[in-house]
């Protein structure tokens, strides 16, 4: 990394800004790809900002890897007739809403916040 990038990540304001911009861009893309509902996109942007601001690239990368892999898995499974039959009886669509976003990433955000307050390798 060059010195300017290190400066941005060292600054709380820089990490907050990077988190907001990056998380909003990813949430918007996921909304357009129909992986997130409107409330899910807003929640994902807020949550992603928290991960970046409190934990930095490692924590955000972990969240992003989980989201991408689960989204791809859901899209792949959607093609199977057994899943389509099961989803026909389920009230929610394949798009994740705010409750699902917080259920999937909320515990990780709490761990990230714990690491920010009391840094230790055990949090990661």
Descriptive overview:
The chain has 124 residues and is an all-alpha fold. The mean pLDDT is 84. It has one domain (3-123). It is elongated. It is built from six helices and no strands.
- Main sheet summary: none
Please indicate the percent range of residues in DSSP E strands (runs of 2 or more). under 5%
Helix and strand run: HHHHHH
Helix segment tally:
6
Question: Which percent range fits the helix content?
Answer: over 70%
Query: How many distinct domains?
Result: 1
* Uncertain segments: none
**Radius of gyration, rounded?**
16 Å
Structural class: mainly alpha
Key phrases:
elongated, single chain, 6 helices, 124 residues, mainly alpha, 77% helix, 0% strand
Topology summary:
Blueprint: H1 3-10, H2 12-32, H3 38-55, H4 57-77, H5 81-88, H6 98-117
In short:
This protein has helices at residues 3-10, 12-32, 38-55, 57-77, 81-88, 98-117. The chain is an all-alpha fold and 124 residues long. The radius of gyration is 16 Å and the shape is elongated.
């Amino acid at each position: 990394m060059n010195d300017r990038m290190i400066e941005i990540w060292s600054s709380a304001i820089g990490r907050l800004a990077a988190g907001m911009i990056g998380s909003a861009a990813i949430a918007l893309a996921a909304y357009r790809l129909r992986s997130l509902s409107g409330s899910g996109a807003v929640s994902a942007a807020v949550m992603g900002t928290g991960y970046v601001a409190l934990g930095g690239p490692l924590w955000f990368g972990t969240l992003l890897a989980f989201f991408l892999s689960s989204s791809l898995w859901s899209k792949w499974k959607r093609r199977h007739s057994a899943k389509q039959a099961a989803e026909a009886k389920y009230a929610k669509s394949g798009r994740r809403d705010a409750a699902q976003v917080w259920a999937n990433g909320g515990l990780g955000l709490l761990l990230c916040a714990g690491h920010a307050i009391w840094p230790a390798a055990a949090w990661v």
